[in-house]
User: What shape does this take?
Amino acid sequence: MISRIRISFLAPLIAGIVLTGCGGKGSAPAAGEAKSLKIAVIPKGMTHEFWKSIHAGAAQAAKELGVEILWKGPQKEDDRAQQITVVEDVISRGVDGIVLAPLDDRALIRPVQDAVRDKIPVIIIDSGLQGRDYISFVATDNYQGGVLAARRMGELLRGKGPIFMIRYLEGSASTAERERGFLETVTKDFPGLRLLVKDQYTGATTETAYQLGENLLGRFPDVEGVFCPNESSTFGVLRALQESGLAGKVKFVGFDSSPKLIQALRDGHLHGLILQNPVKMGYLGVTRMVQHLRGQTIPDRVDTGVTLVIKETMDTPENKALLSPDLSILDR
Amino acid sequence: MRIVRQQTRLQTLINLLAPFLGLILILAIFSSMPDIQSRFLRLANLKSVATQSVIVALGALGMTLVIIGGGIDLSAASNIALSSVVTAYAINAGLPPLLAVGLGILTGGAVGFVNGALITRLRLVPFIITMGMMGIARGVAKWIADNQKIDAPLTWVNELMAKSPRPSWLMLAPGVWLMIVFAVAMAVVLRYTVFGRHVFAIGSNEAAARLCGVRTNRAKIIVYAIAGLFCGLSGVMEFSRLTVGDPTVAVGLELDIIAAVVIGGGSLSGGEGSILGSMIGVFIMAFLRNGCTMMGWPNYIQEIIIGVIIVAAVSLDRIRHRRPT
Assistant: This one.
C-alpha cells in the first residue's frame, strides 16, 4: 500500500522532468540523415565567455560539415574530478571523436588513454596534455603572444624606460609561456627597457591583482610601462592605475578581452591588448577531427593565432569579432 | 522529543524498497532512451559508474553513521581534499606509497576525531563545529599544496581506481571492492554490535540514552573519527583517480554525500538511516549524472532532477511518519 503511494508520487515527478529536459535542446537528429558523425566537445567550464566562444566556433564547424556535437563540461567549473567523469561517460556513450580542453596536464591522461583504447580519437585544445595519446593539439601560441606584447611595449616607449612585467599564477602553463615570450624578447630586442619587477604574481583574482598593482605603484611611482599576461591581472592592475591617476600616463599592454578592457582601450588607459581566438579554436578543433575521421592527415600542432589590438585598429570587423565574439549561433 | 518506535519487519522492508524503486525507475528511464539504450546498461558503463561512485560512497558510509547519531559532518569534502593532498605530498616526498596511503587515511581520521572532541567538549552543535572545520581543512590543504596541485610520481596507488585493474580477474577497480567490503562491514556494525545500537539510541534520544548508561560522548567521538577515516580513504581514492593532489577538488561534495544518505532514508533529526539505503542513494545520483551526460543534456537539468528527488524522498518520509502505527 505504502510503496504504491511512493511510486505514484515519484514516477510522474521524475518522468515529467526527464521528459521536459528531452523535449528541449537535446532533441534527437532527424531520422532521415544517414549516420552523421558525433563529436563530443568538452570544455573546462561552461559559463565563462571564453568557453561560450569555443562553443560557438564548434557549433559553426558542426553546421558547415554536417556533423553533430555534444557539448558537455564538468558540472562545477574547473573541477578536475568531474571532468574525468564527463570524459568517461562520453566514452561509454560512444562518440566518433572527442575534442577536449584538459583542466590538468596530468589528471586527464588516463581518461584520454581509455578513449584511445576504445578507438575514439582525441584532439586537445587550449591547454596541453602530457604524453602523446592525442592526434593533434589546437591552441594559442602563447609564447608568440608574449613576443607581440614585448614588441608593442618597445614601440610605445621607443626602446627605453623602466617597466613592470607582472606574472599571473604559479603553475599556470599558458600564462608562464606568455611571460617567457615577453621576457626573452625584451632582453634580446629591447635592452633599454629596464625590468623593475619581473617575479611578482598577482594570484587568481582581480582583487589580489589590484592590491599587487597598488603596492608596486606605491614603491615604483616612476614606472613607464606595464605588461599583464591575462584578463584578471590586466583588469586588476588597470583598476590600480586608474585609482592612482596614472592610467593613460603609464603605457599598459594587457591580455584577453572583456567589456571593461574594451572600454579602457577606447579611453586610452590601455595601449594594447593581445587577443586569442577561442572561436577559431573551437572551429578548428571540430574541423580537424572531422578531417581525421574522413581519412585525411592533419598536423599534430595547430596554432590558432594571437593578435595585437590597439585603439586605432579596434573597430575593424576582424578585431571587433575578436574583442566581442558573435555568439548568436548558440541561441538557435 | 521523539519516541523510539519499534519497527516491524514489514516497515523496514518498505523503508528499503522506496529508494530501491527510485533507482530502478532511473535505470528503466535511461535504458529506454533510444539514443543510448544499447550502451547504458553495458558492463563497461556499469563499471565506470561504479568507479565514479567510490569517492561519494566512502564518504556516505561515515556520513550515515553521523546522521543516524543525530549529527552532521559538513567538513567531509574538505577532509577528502586534505587527505588527498597529504597522500600526494607524502608520495612526492619519497615516502613508500603504503605509508603515504596510511598517512592520508589517518589525516582524515584526525580531522574527524577533532570534530568529535570539539562537539562533545564545547557542547556546540555539530553543524557549527564541522562548518568551521570545513574551512580549516580546506585552508590547510591549500597551504600544504602551496596553492597549487601536487604532481606525484605514478605508483600502485594510482591503480586503485583504474577502470581496468591490473590483475584482470579482479573485474572491478580495487577501490570498488573496498567500497563493497566496507559497506558490508558498516552494515554489520550498525545492525549487530552494541556500538551500532548505541548510535541509533543517541540519535533517537540522547538524554534517554545517557540515562540508560550509554557513554554518549565517547560514542560520538568514535562516530566522527570513523567518519573521518572514511573521508581519509575517500581522499586516497580521489588522489588515485586524479594522479595529482588537488586542494580545490570536491568543493561542495559534502552536499552530495548528505543527499545520498537522505535519499536513502536517513533522517536529519537522527535515529534513522541505513547503509544499504545510502548506497542506493549514491547510485541514484551517479546513474543520473551518467545518464544525463550520455544523453548530452545540459548540466542544469541533472541539478534540477537531483533537487526534486531529494525533496520528494524526504517529503514521502514525512508522510509515512505521520501515519499512526
Observations:
- Chain B has a mean pLDDT of 90.
- Strands of chain B lie at 150-151, 244-245.
- Chain B touches chain A through 61 residues (CB under 8 Å).
